[in-house]
Amino acid sequence: DAKTTQPNSMESNEEEPVHLPCNHSTISGTDYIHWYRQLPSQGPEYVIHGLTSNVNNRMASLAIAEDRKSSTLILHRATLRDAAVYYCILRDVTGGGSNYKLTFGKGTLLTVNP
Amino acid sequence: GAVVSQHPSRVICKSGTSVKIECRSLDFQATTMFWYRQFPKKSLMLMATSNEGSKATYEQGVEKDKFLINHASLTLSTLTVTSAHPEDSSFYICSASGLALNYEQYFGPGTRLTVT
Question: What is the separation, in whole angstroms, between the first and last Cα of chain B?
């Protein structure tokens, strides 16, 4: 899997938007950009994914650069429950079976201040 | 939808004994299940990938005779840590994926294993 680069940590205030960046300069044409988050002592939770176009769901928005070498996860109004480690992962979905495995990096630890 | 459960959530065992962890997909058929291990303040590390009815594929450096994986049905996979040692103490997390969910991985809540 192609590598991603994320800041080690970020801080936000409650009720404010949060923009979590991810660089993936070696992304290939068949790599989807996935975001997961992990709350303390829990398994990761799927947040959002996309290929080329920006994506929105009930949890977040994903903005993908035109050259696909970077992306930004946007939490529109941070809450205390959004404090977690956020992982940006590239996944090549061609083929099947083990090609769908995820390689987790260190992620970004998001702290939300009340 | 897409709920994955793990049992037990916490387990303490004595060194030299074996412990089994179950991973279940509750509302979908999981053709593939993945097992991860996570040490404190570290990221998840993939241990193995298992497809229903097939032998698991282990990542480099993971002992297949120590970490036995069985994926006998489309909703259940088990990880057995054999002859556990204190260094096996870790947070074990499974994930499941299937065609109905476009092969997105959904994770269980994790199992905290402590070997004394």
Answer: 37
